[in-house]
Design brief:
Helices cover 17% and strands 37% of the residues. By secondary structure, it is an alpha+beta fold. The protein has a single domain, classed as Hotdog Thioesterase (Thiol Ester Dehydrase, Chain A). Strand 1 and strand 2 form a beta hairpin. The longest helix is centred in the middle third of the chain and has 19 residues.
Amino acid sequence: MTSPETSPPTSADIQLIQRILPHRYPFLLVDKVIDIDGIATATGIKNVTMNEPHFQGHFPGLPIMPGVTIVEAMAQTAAVMVGVSLGMADKEMKVYFMAIEKAKFRRKVVPGDVLEMRLSTLRGKPGGKVWRFGGVASVEGEMAAECEFTAMMDLG
């Protein structure tokens, strides 16, 4: 946890993200998180590249980021937001999906896109295990996906 004299960071680079999330290649799906407003809101950034393994089979000749990986990237953004805000770096925090609801996919996400994921906490508090989030993922201001999800956070 942070002390009253210091505020938690309002952004997370890849080094801090890796100190919070257990995910690694090929399943680390967020490159940085910006505009972290405590446990309320944050924006994740994912630079989509052709080097990602899912593009080999989804789809050959027409690479499209799978919708489930977009939802996972949103969940990782939410976990980083909570982890940064609660001082969870190096604490082996684990996050588990409990439900994914209201998922809608509106636009293809392809190599070269920058996926911007805006997440907000709908329910959850420090010390709580069950959290609910809402998220919208967009590319160049156009909505690509949206969903709500519930997760259990094992905060160490």
